[in-house]
């Protein structure tokens, strides 16, 4: 094959620094649009995004031209800088240093997409930590509770 063909789907979860509830309704759609543009700029596609005031979930399709760690560094750094330049908040905005990334099979695409857009409903039943532990365990990821 002289061409690289791929269908890499990833569910990515990341939080605001210190879990501060800083993602406000008055600018969250603009933030989501900015993040989508950042991913497109790296040859990816934002398929779904949603979250709560203290964290985001994304479903993305990306090309194997850039490691996911580099993509996330660019998305998080760029969106933090953009948010701070917009002066939406009285305080400085930043993301936590880590993130969770989980592979998604094409057969689970619709279920993950639905899960991401229903975050408000999901969090009426469970806290973020419970949600993250469920994701980690469902994907067989070992974790240290002190970092959750």
Description:
The protein is α+β, with helices and mostly antiparallel strands. It has one domain (8-138): Transposase IS200-like (Alpha-Beta Plaits), CATH 3.30.70. 41% of the residues lie in helices and 19% in strands. Helix 1 (25-41) crosses helix 2 (68-86). The radius of gyration is 15 Å and the shape is globular. The model has no long low-confidence stretch (mean pLDDT 90).
Query: Tally the helices: what do you get?
Result: 5
* CATH top level class name: Alpha Beta
The figure for the number of domains is: 1
Number of strands: 4
CATH topology: Alpha-Beta Plaits
CATH architecture: 2-Layer Sandwich
Question: What's the quick description here?
Answer:
The protein has 148 residues and is α+β, with helices and mostly antiparallel strands. It has helices at residues 25-41, 68-86, 109-117, 119-122, 128-138; strands at 8-15, 45-52, 55-62, 100-103.
Which characteristics define this entry?
5 helices; alpha+beta; about 150 residues; 4-stranded antiparallel β-sheet; globular; Alpha-Beta Plaits
Describe the secondary-structure layout.
Blueprint: E1 8-15, H1 25-41, E2 45-52, E3 55-62, H2 68-86, E4 100-103, H3 109-117, H4 119-122, H5 128-138
Antiparallel strand pairs: 1-3, 1-4, 2-3
Helix pairs in contact: 1-2
